[in-house]
Predict the structure.
Amino acid sequence: MELHPDVEHLAMLLGTWRGKGSGHYPTIEDFEYFEEVTFGHVGKPFIAYSQKTRDAATELPLHSEAGYFRPVGTTAVELVLVQPSGIVEIHDGILDGTTLRMESTAVLTTPTAKSVTTVHRMIAVGESTLSYDVHMAAVGLPLQHHLSAELHRQ
Ligand code: HEM
């Protein structure tokens, strides 16, 4: 299917990526995880994103999330993203070369979800690697690092 011209500058994301990541936060034990991410398109002006992870020690399912990247012109990108943990993120971002820097403009949580107020996501795409960092302000703490991972194009 032909890529919509509005998402051509995000084409470097398209495909499936797998790799390993690590996470930490002051309130939890450090952890490592395996991850698979898919960016797809249906010829419309957005990129569909889905992610799933497994605990690197037990191989049991861990976090997952899904959403849509919505380009606005050639450098601005909106993101809407949901997590089964009851968290919804809305971001505005900027594409700088092949690096996307997303900052939440709203984070909504269901009544029983953990508190999260701000999320920053940086995604850097190389020749055949995709690396990212996620920072969050959660459970009453200021914005700080939660995740880094390096994935490889499949
Ligand atoms: C690769 C993606 C992610 C993985 C593998 C992951 C994994 C984990 C793990 C293992 C924990 C500790 C156990 C638990 O509370 O379940 C945790 C805690 C948490 N994570 Fe993540 N996480 C991911 C992404 C995110 C994102 C994107 C957010 C928010 C936007 C988030 C928010 C939280 C919160 C609020 C906690 C609870 C901290 C606490 O209870 O003090 N996580 N995460």
About this structure: The pocket of protoporphyrin IX containing FE is lined by residues 21, 23, 25, 27-28, 31, 33, 35, 53, 62-63, 87, 89, 114, 116, 119, 134, 136, 138-139, 146-147 (CB under 6 Å).
